[in-house]
Amino acid sequence: MAPAARLAGVKRVGAAAPQELDEERLLRRVARGDRAAFEELYRRTSPWLAVRLGRRCADQQIVAEVMQETYLAVWRAAGSFTGTGGTAVGWLWTIAARRLVDAFRRRAHHAQPPPAAAPHPVAPAAEEVALVATVGGDVGDALRCLAPELRDVLQAMVLDGLSVRETAVLLGLPEGTVKTRARRARTVMREALA
């Protein structure tokens, strides 16, 4: 057997297959133009991203457009992910959340109100589960006791890291209402923890 033929079936040390890498490493490979790494990143993250966006917007056409814009942005800007201050998945969600806000703005600009969020989620969103799992005890209890409209604002501003304006667009509320609900959420949390 020729040496090249023998080596063709052997995996080189340090050249892990994309499915063996974590998302941060996949992003670094995407930044170098690795299409297989991009496809693996998409395969891993697109199902939960679609569900998470679907919880924010009931219009599946908007969700599909945001998904496409998000992954295009990931392909183009993967090199800008530094890994400091967050995970690759968090970075991906930040891009998607901002693209969703942009989609709502475009829709509002064309005199069509954004579609309402899905009325009854089938299961708790991943960030809610993660928040309750990581924030236990009294804080977790206080979060569970918050009214849904207060929890939505707190989630968008704290977990998703959105500004007041972005939260207002995302939730379809006036900025003043977002500020009021954020203040009420902090007050309720403070009282529950006192």
Automatic annotation (TrEMBL):
Residues 139-187 form the RNA polymerase sigma factor 70 region 4 type domain. The keyword Transcription applies. It comes from Streptomyces inusitatus. Belongs to the sigma-70 factor family. ECF subfamily. Gene3D superfamilies: 1.10.1740.10, Winged helix-like DNA-binding domain superfamily/Winged helix DNA-binding domain. The gene is rpoE. GO terms for biological process: DNA-templated transcription initiation. It comes from the Bacteria. Residues 41-108 form the RNA polymerase sigma-70 region domain. Keywords: Sigma factor, Transcription, Transcription regulation. InterPro entries: RNA_pol_sigma-70-like, RNA_pol_sigma-70_dom, RNA_pol_sigma70_r2, RNA_pol_sigma70_r4_t2, RNA_pol_sigma_r2, RNA_pol_sigma_r3/r4-like, WH-like_DNA-bd_sf. GO terms for molecular function: DNA binding; sigma factor activity. This is RNA polymerase sigma24 factor.
